[in-house]
Protein backbone atom coordinates (compact mmCIF):
# COMPACT_ATOMS: atom_id res chain seq x y z
CA UNK A 1 0.00 0.00 0.00
CA UNK A 2 2.77 2.37 0.90
CA UNK A 3 4.60 1.40 -2.24
CA UNK A 4 1.51 2.05 -4.30
CA UNK A 5 1.02 5.47 -2.76
CA UNK A 6 4.66 6.26 -3.43
CA UNK A 7 4.26 5.28 -7.04
CA UNK A 8 1.22 7.49 -7.38
CA UNK A 9 3.06 10.43 -5.89
CA UNK A 10 5.99 9.87 -8.17
CA UNK A 11 3.63 9.75 -11.11
CA UNK A 12 1.99 13.01 -10.19
CA UNK A 13 5.11 14.89 -9.17
CA UNK A 14 7.26 14.15 -12.17
CA UNK A 15 6.16 17.03 -14.36
CA UNK A 16 6.48 20.75 -13.85
CA UNK A 17 9.78 22.65 -13.61
CA UNK A 18 11.51 23.64 -16.79
CA UNK A 19 10.10 27.15 -16.48
CA UNK A 20 13.03 29.35 -17.30
CA UNK A 21 11.08 32.56 -16.84
CA UNK A 22 12.70 34.63 -19.64
CA UNK A 23 16.17 34.14 -18.24
CA UNK A 24 15.76 36.41 -15.26
CA UNK A 25 18.95 36.55 -13.20
CA UNK A 26 16.93 36.84 -10.05
CA UNK A 27 16.18 33.57 -8.43
CA UNK A 28 12.52 33.07 -7.74
CA UNK A 29 11.72 33.52 -4.07
CA UNK A 30 12.05 30.31 -2.23
CA UNK A 31 9.41 29.42 0.23
CA UNK A 32 10.75 29.35 3.72
CA UNK A 33 8.50 26.42 4.51
CA UNK A 34 6.00 24.43 2.60
CA UNK A 35 2.54 25.93 2.71
CA UNK A 36 1.09 22.47 2.76
CA UNK A 37 2.83 19.42 4.08
CA UNK A 38 3.41 16.67 1.58
CA UNK A 39 1.23 13.71 2.38
CA UNK A 40 2.86 11.35 4.81
CA UNK A 41 3.74 7.97 3.35
CA UNK A 42 2.01 6.50 6.36
CA UNK A 43 -1.11 8.63 5.87
CA UNK A 44 -4.42 7.18 4.79
CA UNK A 45 -4.60 5.88 1.22
CA UNK A 46 -6.16 8.27 -1.23
CA UNK A 47 -8.48 7.61 -4.13
CA UNK A 48 -6.75 7.62 -7.49
CA UNK A 49 -8.41 7.23 -10.86
CA UNK A 50 -7.30 7.45 -14.46
CA UNK A 51 -9.73 7.44 -17.39
CA UNK A 52 -8.19 5.78 -20.44
CA UNK A 53 -9.21 4.95 -23.99
CA UNK A 54 -9.60 1.29 -24.79
CA UNK A 55 -8.95 -0.66 -27.95
CA UNK A 56 -10.44 -3.73 -29.54
CA UNK A 57 -7.95 -6.21 -27.99
CA UNK A 58 -8.89 -4.91 -24.51
CA UNK A 59 -12.46 -6.03 -25.19
CA UNK A 60 -11.79 -9.28 -26.97
CA UNK A 61 -14.77 -11.07 -25.44
CA UNK A 62 -17.06 -8.29 -24.27
CA UNK A 63 -17.38 -6.36 -27.55
CA UNK A 64 -18.31 -7.54 -31.02
CA UNK A 65 -19.66 -6.11 -34.28
CA UNK A 66 -23.25 -5.00 -33.83
CA UNK A 67 -22.85 -3.81 -30.25
CA UNK A 68 -24.80 -0.61 -29.62
CA UNK A 69 -21.70 1.41 -28.70
CA UNK A 70 -18.42 1.52 -30.63
CA UNK A 71 -15.13 0.72 -28.89
CA UNK A 72 -14.27 4.41 -29.28
CA UNK A 73 -17.29 5.23 -27.13
CA UNK A 74 -15.96 3.28 -24.16
CA UNK A 75 -13.38 4.09 -21.50
CA UNK A 76 -11.49 2.21 -18.82
CA UNK A 77 -11.47 3.75 -15.37
CA UNK A 78 -8.36 2.49 -13.62
CA UNK A 79 -8.92 3.22 -9.96
CA UNK A 80 -8.26 1.93 -6.51
CA UNK A 81 -10.91 0.64 -4.13
CA UNK A 82 -11.21 -0.85 -0.69
CA UNK A 83 -11.47 -4.63 -0.65
CA UNK A 84 -13.28 -7.01 1.64
CA UNK A 85 -9.89 -7.61 3.31
CA UNK A 86 -9.63 -4.02 4.54
CA UNK A 87 -6.85 -3.24 2.07
CA UNK A 88 -6.77 -1.02 -1.00
CA UNK A 89 -6.69 -2.74 -4.39
CA UNK A 90 -6.43 -1.63 -8.00
CA UNK A 91 -9.46 -2.14 -10.18
CA UNK A 92 -10.63 -1.42 -13.70
CA UNK A 93 -14.15 -0.60 -14.82
CA UNK A 94 -15.15 -0.35 -18.52
CA UNK A 95 -17.87 2.25 -19.01
CA UNK A 96 -19.49 4.50 -21.58
CA UNK A 97 -17.26 7.51 -22.27
CA UNK A 98 -20.16 9.85 -21.53
CA UNK A 99 -20.44 8.53 -17.97
CA UNK A 100 -16.76 8.04 -17.10
CA UNK A 101 -16.27 11.30 -15.21
CA UNK A 102 -19.48 11.02 -13.20
CA UNK A 103 -18.86 7.38 -12.31
CA UNK A 104 -15.35 8.24 -11.18
CA UNK A 105 -16.97 10.71 -8.80
CA UNK A 106 -19.32 8.01 -7.49
CA UNK A 107 -16.47 5.59 -6.80
CA UNK A 108 -14.50 8.38 -5.16
CA UNK A 109 -17.38 8.77 -2.71
CA UNK A 110 -17.49 5.02 -2.10
CA UNK A 111 -13.73 5.00 -1.50
CA UNK A 112 -13.89 7.85 0.97
CA UNK A 113 -16.36 5.97 3.13
CA UNK A 114 -14.40 2.72 2.72
CA UNK A 115 -17.23 0.92 1.01
CA UNK A 116 -15.67 -2.52 0.29
CA UNK A 117 -15.65 -3.99 -3.22
CA UNK A 118 -14.59 -7.63 -3.51
CA UNK A 119 -12.94 -7.23 -6.93
CA UNK A 120 -13.22 -4.98 -9.97
CA UNK A 121 -12.15 -6.51 -13.28
CA UNK A 122 -13.40 -6.22 -16.86
CA UNK A 123 -15.69 -9.11 -17.81
CA UNK A 124 -13.11 -10.00 -20.45
CA UNK A 125 -11.22 -11.67 -17.61
CA UNK A 126 -14.19 -14.03 -17.53
CA UNK A 127 -14.34 -14.33 -21.32
CA UNK A 128 -17.38 -12.12 -21.27
CA UNK A 129 -19.35 -14.56 -19.11
CA UNK A 130 -21.72 -12.68 -16.85
CA UNK A 131 -22.31 -15.87 -14.86
CA UNK A 132 -18.60 -16.43 -14.19
CA UNK A 133 -18.05 -12.78 -13.33
CA UNK A 134 -20.86 -12.93 -10.76
CA UNK A 135 -19.60 -16.25 -9.45
CA UNK A 136 -16.31 -14.47 -8.69
CA UNK A 137 -18.26 -11.64 -7.00
CA UNK A 138 -16.79 -9.25 -9.56
CA UNK A 139 -17.89 -5.65 -9.89
CA UNK A 140 -18.18 -4.69 -13.56
CA UNK A 141 -19.98 -2.44 -16.01
CA UNK A 142 -19.67 -2.84 -19.79
CA UNK A 143 -20.67 -6.15 -21.33
CA UNK A 144 -22.29 -6.36 -24.75
CA UNK A 145 -25.14 -8.66 -23.82
CA UNK A 146 -28.88 -8.74 -23.70
CA UNK A 147 -30.82 -8.02 -20.54
CA UNK A 148 -31.40 -11.09 -18.40
CA UNK A 149 -34.55 -12.83 -19.58
CA UNK A 150 -35.09 -10.37 -22.41
CA UNK A 151 -34.38 -9.95 -26.10
CA UNK A 152 -33.20 -6.36 -25.88
CA UNK A 153 -29.85 -4.83 -25.04
CA UNK A 154 -28.95 -4.56 -21.40
CA UNK A 155 -27.78 -1.16 -20.22
CA UNK A 156 -24.48 -2.98 -19.70
CA UNK A 157 -24.19 -3.23 -23.49
CA UNK A 158 -23.92 0.57 -23.55
CA UNK A 159 -21.56 0.74 -20.58
CA UNK A 160 -24.32 2.59 -18.77
CA UNK A 161 -24.89 0.08 -15.96
CA UNK A 162 -22.68 -1.09 -13.10
CA UNK A 163 -23.07 -4.28 -11.04
CA UNK A 164 -21.58 -3.96 -7.56
CA UNK A 165 -20.65 -6.92 -5.34
CA UNK A 166 -23.09 -9.18 -7.18
CA UNK A 167 -22.97 -11.92 -4.55
CA UNK A 168 -23.98 -9.78 -1.57
CA UNK A 169 -26.35 -7.97 -3.94
CA UNK A 170 -27.90 -10.74 -6.02
CA UNK A 171 -30.28 -10.74 -8.93
CA UNK A 172 -33.50 -12.21 -7.57
CA UNK A 173 -36.00 -13.39 -10.15
CA UNK A 174 -39.70 -12.75 -9.71
CA UNK A 175 -40.21 -16.21 -8.20
CA UNK A 176 -37.44 -15.56 -5.68
CA UNK A 177 -34.74 -17.63 -7.38
CA UNK A 178 -31.04 -16.73 -7.11
CA UNK A 179 -28.78 -18.50 -9.63
CA UNK A 180 -25.59 -18.44 -7.55
CA UNK A 181 -25.96 -20.80 -4.63
CA UNK A 182 -23.34 -19.17 -2.40
CA UNK A 183 -25.29 -15.94 -2.65
CA UNK A 184 -28.77 -17.24 -1.81
CA UNK A 185 -28.33 -16.21 1.81
CA UNK A 186 -28.20 -12.56 0.76
CA UNK A 187 -31.81 -12.67 -0.29
CA UNK A 188 -32.35 -11.46 3.27
CA UNK A 189 -31.85 -7.74 2.75
CA UNK A 190 -31.93 -6.99 6.47
CA UNK A 191 -28.46 -8.55 6.84
CA UNK A 192 -25.72 -6.17 7.86
CA UNK A 193 -22.65 -7.50 6.08
CA UNK A 194 -19.87 -5.60 4.28
CA UNK A 195 -20.79 -4.54 0.77
CA UNK A 196 -24.50 -5.31 1.08
CA UNK A 197 -26.50 -2.42 -0.36
CA UNK A 198 -29.58 -1.28 1.54
CA UNK A 199 -32.46 0.78 0.25
CA UNK A 200 -31.65 4.49 0.51
CA UNK A 201 -28.10 3.96 1.80
CA UNK A 202 -25.09 6.03 0.79
CA UNK A 203 -24.21 3.79 -2.14
CA UNK A 204 -27.69 4.14 -3.58
CA UNK A 205 -27.50 7.87 -2.87
CA UNK A 206 -24.12 8.29 -4.58
CA UNK A 207 -25.60 6.90 -7.80
CA UNK A 208 -28.83 8.85 -7.36
CA UNK A 209 -26.71 12.00 -7.20
CA UNK A 210 -25.73 11.44 -10.86
CA UNK A 211 -29.26 10.44 -11.79
CA UNK A 212 -28.70 6.68 -11.86
CA UNK A 213 -31.37 4.29 -10.59
CA UNK A 214 -31.03 1.12 -8.52
CA UNK A 215 -32.35 -2.33 -9.45
CA UNK A 216 -33.24 -2.92 -5.81
CA UNK A 217 -36.14 -0.56 -6.35
CA UNK A 218 -37.67 -2.64 -9.12
CA UNK A 219 -40.90 -4.49 -8.54
CA UNK A 220 -41.05 -8.20 -9.32
CA UNK A 221 -37.46 -8.91 -10.28
CA UNK A 222 -34.93 -7.36 -7.91
CA UNK A 223 -31.40 -6.65 -9.10
CA UNK A 224 -29.66 -5.42 -5.97
CA UNK A 225 -26.23 -5.17 -7.65
CA UNK A 226 -27.45 -3.08 -10.56
CA UNK A 227 -27.24 0.68 -11.11
CA UNK A 228 -27.97 2.27 -14.47
CA UNK A 229 -28.32 5.64 -16.13
CA UNK A 230 -31.95 5.12 -17.09
CA UNK A 231 -32.93 3.07 -14.04
CA UNK A 232 -33.52 -0.08 -16.13
ZN1 LIG B 1 -26.55 -5.18 -13.99
From TrEMBL:
Q: Where is this region: Disordered?
A: 19-47
Going by the UniProt record, its keywords in alphabetical order are: Carboxypeptidase, Hydrolase, Protease
Q: Which GO terms describe its molecular function?
A: carboxypeptidase activity
InterPro entries recorded = Peptidase_M15C, Zn_M74/Hedgehog-like
Where the record annotates domain Peptidase M15C, the positions are 148-228
Q: Which Gene3D superfamilies match?
A: 3.30.1380.10
What name appears for this protein in its UniProt entry? D-alanyl-D-alanine carboxypeptidase
Q: What is the organism of origin for this protein?
A: Thermomonospora echinospora
Amino acid sequence: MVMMLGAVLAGCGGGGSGDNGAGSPVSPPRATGPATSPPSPSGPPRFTADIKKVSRPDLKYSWREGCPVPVSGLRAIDMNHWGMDGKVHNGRLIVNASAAEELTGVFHKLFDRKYPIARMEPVDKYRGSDFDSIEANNTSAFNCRQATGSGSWSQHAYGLAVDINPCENPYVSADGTISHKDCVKYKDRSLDVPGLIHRGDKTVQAFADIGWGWGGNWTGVKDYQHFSSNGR
